[in-house]
């Protein structure tokens, strides 16, 4: 699945707004996800090479926003059940298994 430029822009904004609503720092998010801050930045800017990793971040942020008593910002491109997308590794997403390395 490829996102068009507007979808990329919207998704980056949606990730950022949900991050703000978590009340966490980027260091806390990186620690929770067992990734570097470099990789986290790549996820927030959608420059990460894995298609699964942004979904993992999305799901994590939604959970943390709700735990913070906030309502998550709806995603406009990362929507639906990831189990139904043939190109995604739903097991990795379910297990929150981000790809190794910073790319």
From TrEMBL:
Pfam families, A to Z: DUF2316
Highest taxon of the lineage: Bacteria
InterPro entries hit by this protein: DUF2316
Record-given protein name: DUF2316 family protein
